[in-house]
Amino acid sequence: MASVDVHIDVFLNYILVEKGLSEKTLESYSRDLTRYASFMSENGISQVSAEDTYIILKHMITLRDQGLSPRSRARHLVTIRSFYAFLYKEKTLSRDPAKLIDMPKSGLKLPDTLNLSEITALIDAPDMTSHRGLRDAAMIELLYATGLRVSELVSIKMNDINRDASFVRVFGKGSKERVVPMGQYAMEKIELYLTYARPYLLKNKPSEYMFVARQDKPLTRQGFWKLLNRYALKAGIMKNISPHTLRHSFATHLLEGGADLRVVQTLLGHSDISTTQIYTHITRDHLKKIHARFHPRG
Asked: 154, 220 in Cβ contact below 8 A?
């Protein structure tokens, strides 16, 4: 069997070419796997095996003893899981030795999510009688309706929106394209913005971008972040929120409503299901609360 380094090179080439992940993600995977390969070498292991569960666990314990946070260790484990899942899929290994290893407790800690009343208050915060308020309301509604990254939101162009079918086309990490449904409420806010606000903000200048600031330039990520925090204060939300909070709320509310994890993975644009699985602990907590509330012996 080929050496660990050879398998890592093949895997990294796969996620670059086939998965279309970003250069930053590729660098992170490469760094984590290089560290893992060095650990294997230090323990006298030069080849991967279907029996590597022990060495993976030993590596995770070593990372903990070296002072890595649960979140950093969880990121390492996500990388190693993806690596072994690839080897199993390619039939290099007869089974996946990383599959059953649990995430470190408190690993991949999510920021606060908003409940439905907080979401409603945030969406209602912009002044719908002003042009900027119409734009901001459309952006907040769309972000929660689709779970987009803020970089994807501000990059939307006019021809990315299908107003008849209520879909938006976005280009995520690694320029990977996906199509996401918007829903009725977001579409209504977008129609109001396009009809009454966007022409005024552009002052009759052309722009390919959907959400504009001044002089036909798109609103920046930093600009949206600032206005979102301003509306959060206005809505009386005391949590420390960011645009990603709406993405997490989108995923959490879908799963709590019974959506399939694979569907949420597709909507979020996650290349690896293990990335989406960080939400499953929230779903389990939700189910526990439902059980405790409604079961006679809960």
From this structure: yes
Give me the phi and psi of 242, to 5 degrees please: -140, 175
Contact 18, 171 (CB under 8 A): no
Distances 297 to 102, 142, 286 between C-alpha atoms, Å: 29, 41, 17
- Name all contacts of 285-294 with Cβ < 8 Å and 24+ positions apart: 286/255, 286/256
Enter the pTM of the model.
0.63
Residues 137, 143: Cα–Cα separation, whole Å: 10
If asked whether residues 202 and 135 sit together in one domain, one would say: yes
Residues with active-site annotation: 149, 173, 244, 247, 270, 279
Q: Are residues 178 and 256 in the same domain?
A: yes
- Measured CA to CA, the distance from residue 255 to residue 286 in angstroms comes to 10
Q: Which domain holds residue 79?
A: 4-89
Residue among 281, 247, 284 at smallest CA distance from 267: 247
Domain with residue 32: its CATH number is 1.10.150
Q: Give a yes or no: residue 293 inside a domain.
A: no
CATH code assigned at 248: 1.10.443.10
Q: Which residues contact 1 (CB under 8 A, 6 or more apart)?
A: 47, 48, 92
The pLDDT tens digits for 138-196 are 999 999 999 999 999 999 999 999 998 899 999 877 677 889 999 899 999 999 999 99
Q: Give me the number of domains the chain comprises.
A: 2
